[in-house]
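>> received
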Amino acid sequence: MSHYLPNLRDLEFNLFEIHRVHEYSPIDRSTAEDLVREAARFAAGPWAQSFEASDRAPLLLDDGEVSLPPALLSSLRKGLEGGWDRVGLPSELGGVPVPSVLFWCLQDLFLGANPAAAFYSTGPYFASILYAEGTDEQKQLARLMVERAWGATMVLTEPDAGSDVGAATTKAIPVGDDTYHLEGVKRFITSGEHDASENIIHFVLARPVGAVAGTKGLSLFVVPKFLVKVDGTLGERNGVKATRLEHKLGLRGSATCELTFGQDRPAVGFLLGGVHDGIRQMFRVIEHARMTIGAKSAATLSTGYLNALGYARERVQGPDLALATDKSSPRVPILRHPDVRRMLMLQKCHSEGMRALLTY
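>> returned
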């Protein structure tokens, strides 16, 4: 039995009774219900299957390379085989457009079942941003990201510039034609290095030489792990390298890395869209990332609550409070005890309240 228990009733309540998504979406209610229920089946099955194994086997960094556990790679491969990476993408990128609220209900399922796996699967969303903001050449790169399931990262934080993004010191040295060499160190980069895809496209905030201080001087650069040739094949290794794995409490299957740019060879980056508009562009990524973390938190609490509820129905201990003075009274499931019911109701209120906020 899977560790993951989806709350389909609450998801469908939000989708069809609160937001009535079927009334304004080209997707009818029956199709939307089928999509959610199939996603729940997949999330609780092949997707959740690697959750425990990936959390128990710490990731190892070897000369800038990180290898994921076979079980986790299997879950990711099955996600691609099922086409789940295409749901929510624009049709121009070969995607299946769905209303935003439906997309986030699906993410609720995937993030609740296996958050580490879900974090490796953000490449298609980054591709949609590249397609919307990029040059004609970058739009083609976006298509490759989707077609070949490449990974992607959001690269902001530095050792001395965490929430103070404007204090970033990573510099970008122009070498011509909107091409730059990046130099600096970034930290806490989710999925910064792994072998789940043949290439990783890093979206990196850096300050071009001579730019003003603060956030206004930052630009956004596209930095591939492997440089991409004109015909779409992979070229040489770029000068971005994982130099440390961050050790986190929980989510040990997620490769959160320190990335160093320009240490051994030039880290070639391409100015996104050919314009110096880094903060606005990066906020399209940040907003998605913050929604993801909120959805992950709500989904983790939801399955935790449902597991606790199931346990309380089965665990027998103590008599019914009304019969506690009768030593011969039968033992009852702990769900019958008022304080256990109070704790469960508190979990239910927080869980379903967070999901209501997410879908809103």
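>> The radius of gyration is 23 Å.
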